[in-house]
Amino acid sequence: MTTQVIALVLFVLVFAVATLRKVHLGVIMFAAAAGVGIWLANMALKDVISGFPVSILVLLVGVTYFFAIAQVNGTVDQIIERAVLRVGDRAVLLPFVFFALTAGIAAMGSPLAGLVMTPIGMPLAKKYGIDRMLMGLAIGCGLSAGGFAPTSLFGIVTYGTAHAVDIELNPLVLFGVALVANFILLIAAFFMFGGPKLLRSKRTGAFGSNHKPNFARSSGMPEHPFERQGFATRSGLVAEKIKVRINEAPIATSSSLAPFTLVQKTTILCMMGLVASVVSLSLIGQDPDIGVLCFVFASVMTLVDPATGKGAVSKIDWSTVLMVGGIITFVGVLQEMGAVDLLGHAASQVGTPLLAALFICFIGGLISAFASTTGMLAALVPLAIPLVANGDITGWAVIAALGVCSSIVDVSPFSTVGATLVATVDVDERPRMSKLLTRWGMSMVVVGPIGLIGALVIPTMF
């Protein structure tokens, strides 16, 4: 037991050192995994390396490459412009539209890419008299929902790690759980932060129903708020290309938008083909390899436009691949040593398996509010193995609950998402936003596990 405890302590220390020193977690994790595996577990180096998750690597590279092409060739920007323009002056719809847009962008490989909607959504919210907290939570909930799509990072890591430890979890079910949970949170936020006032308003927008917002391309955007805070998004182009202007430019209409090019039309067809392929294969009982499908459709897009295909290679999320690979390799060593079973046994001592599942979800949410959600998912999902081994609780329900609990807290101002939401409002509004996001994020640490364990795990026990 001593070696298992030492390995677990080293695992936690690597997280702490990487965070404090601001170094890449995956690099340190991989090196530490080799050291722990060889010196503490008496494993051969080839056995340590065999724990590197090649299947997840294929998923991440394929998905991020596919959607990077869609971003580079301007397809994503075109879709956003048309969607926002169609809303017109209907202010009450804006939070829901931004929820959907953010979810769609977050589903394209990298959840944090959805943050590109903040410099568009927050100025719109101010112009239309919408509480910035409501708009921020709409974007945050959309990011969490889209992040669990079968084509996005949270979803890939969660169901990929679950499958690696022989826990069956349908990626579409995981996405559905995340989508429903976050939409319920959006409805709650709507009624808590000014939604009823928007419904009662006789005017459809802050300037009346006869005035439409103007969306114009501009090369003179102010400094990007993510750059000031040191953050980056995978789809930052749209924030530089779209600027909200009220009474500053001629009214934009659908006829003034540039038409879709042949390359963009091909990209849209490939995106539809990818979704249709995943859904169709799942319906007939097959287990679609989303990474391979992304490579197939990306190949078509690359052949149609080689230039964008070449440019998209640099946008593959290699950093995340390395981080997830390092963490899972270390977790594989811990499993080989029996350390994961030791933790699971400790969790089971909390009481019944139901309470143990609640405890793990609580820990996942609490840590994720301050640290990497992706890292937490890769590290905590294997802890569910001992809980589901005896069949008292259903594995997919616990994993889905754990995944969503670790994500809905990301609006905390101590995380990248929450800090970005605070950074994109006016200076005088930031103290209020920070305080409310702290309350919301910390409340989700408790509300999330109770709600999701109650809705997913308890019904499957009967």
Short structural summary:
This protein is an all-alpha fold. The chain has helices at about 1-20, 25-40, 45-50, 55-70, 75-85, 95-105, 120-125, 130-145, 155-165, 170-190, 195-200, 225-230, 235-240, 260-285, 290-305, 305-310, 320-335, 340-350, 355-370, 375-380, 385-390, 395-405, 415-425, 430-460, and strands spanning about 215, 245.
How does this structure look, described?
This is Dicarboxylate carrier MatC N-terminal domain-containing protein. Residues 1-147 form the Dicarboxylate carrier MatC N-terminal domain. The chain crosses the membrane at residues 26-45, 52-72, 92-116, 137-160, 172-193, 316-334, 354-381, 437-458. Helix 10 (171-192) crosses helix 22. The model is unreliable at 202-252 (pLDDT under 50). The protein is built from 24 helices and two strands. By secondary structure, the protein is an all-alpha fold. The two termini are 36 Å apart.
